[in-house]
Amino acid sequence: MQVGGHPSGVATLFFGPVSSAYPVFMPAQPKPTQLDPAQPAPAQPKVLKPLSKAPAFTLLDQRSDKIKLSEFLGRKVLIFFYPKASTPGCTTQACGLRDIADEIGDTAVIGISPDLPAKLQRFDEQQSLGFTLLSDPEHLVAEKYGVWAEKKLYGKVYMGVVRSAFLIGETGKLEQVWYKISPKDTPKKLLEALAQA
Hints:
The protein is an alpha+beta fold. It has a single domain (58-196), classed as Glutaredoxin (3-Layer(aba) Sandwich), CATH 3.40.30. The chain has helices at 88-98, 117-127, 140-144, 185-196; strands spanning 2-4, 12-14, 58-61, 66-68, 77-81, 108-113, 132-135, 148-153, 156-161, 164-168, 174-179. The strands form three sheets. It has a seven-stranded mixed sheet, with helices on one face. Strands 1-2 form a two-stranded antiparallel ribbon. Residues 6-37 have low confidence and may be disordered.
């Protein structure tokens, strides 16, 4: 083995005759593995509290009519956010609220999901719900109410609607806030809140 010079001044190792020499360079130290550029971490969803003003909105209902929250001033309103129409949990929740319609007086019930109006209309007709279902495909209202958040399912992380419900008083202020409510508890919580009012 011979040590030869290199024009750059870097020592080069030669094996065998100089005429058939091959330079051998020591490999550079590997750089730390670069993770795929991750999306910016989603902002923490805002958390609404009782006595705060309910965020205003205008959305299309199951008949593609524009509905404003302000139209319900003077009445109590239960707004419940659910992930997807006609799925088991969402059907249980919606039908549970349908079944207590005679017990809640003139309290309005409004369901909000990312589903489009046509799907909401089928959901309403199939289950004979009889209350307003609103379409929030861009999840803008869900974000206002702090229910568009990170979720996990079968090891996958994704953004979606966190099932939640809000009872709004006659003046437009929140009376009760239930984040991560279960489908079966939704009608129970509403009846309890109305009984205490």
